[in-house]
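User: hey, got a sec? need DNA-directed RNA polymerase III subunit RPC3 folded
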Amino acid sequence: MIKAVTRRIDENAGELMRFLLEQMYLRSPAWAPESSPLCALELRERCRGVAAEWPLLHQFLDQYLKVLEESGGGLVRRVGDAGSGQYCVRARHAARQLVTAALDHVVTERLGSKAARIFRLVRSRKYIEEDDIQKNAMLVNKECKQLTYKLLEEHFISVQPMRKAASAGGLAKAIYLYHVKLHDVAHAALELCYRALHNTVRRHAREAAAHARLRDKRRRVTTIVHGMRLRGEPQQNIDDVEETLTPPELAVLQGVEKRLKQLSIAELELDKNLFLFKWYFMFPETN
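Assistant: Yep! Here you go:
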């Protein structure tokens, strides 16, 4: 949330968001949909204490609060006028916004940017007909239909059949309304994250085990070379020890370490997404 506000506004707004979250942690019940109200006077006292580090935040606190309320993505709202204004953090709304962004990323990675465009369009409307999707998505009809059905197949969108009232002497016409059940889509994405994390951990373990001997050899060489340097041995002797690792072995090690690093980063990203989805599910589903 702090990073989102920093990117959207600036670092001063991010610091203000940090303080609001700290106060939410100290004053509000765990997993509260909204934080307990915090008055602007308390915020001003806090900013006075960090005026040397954040002079603009201290000088323009009222303006930053207004910008945060109006342009902060709905993460903060004003709930009263006492104490120069009272503000609260909308945790449930923040969880929903972050999960929505995560789902957009999942759709983009699995089906491409055009499918993500259709997904965002359907999500922005409560219900939308197939013809309206084709008109608003700015895609070729055939491609738009294929991507829409792919999203439906992957359970990112849902369809609700309905019948239009029949005209005089005519038959009732069936129409299909597409919509996004965010709670169900988040559950599906959560399962994808679990499966991806399982595969990533297994791949990391298999990659490490397959090259365990070579990695252990490099560790032994590194340890020996470090000891030789501490003892002040000649560089020629150190070079002789380092050359026990041949160029092909070094190339293999470089590739292995690169893959292991990528897998570790993937694990961290999946853990982050799992936290977001679980945070979202901590709040009751709302219409």
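Quick note: Residues 247-281 form the longest helix (35 residues). Let me know if you need anything else on DNA-directed RNA polymerase III subunit RPC3.
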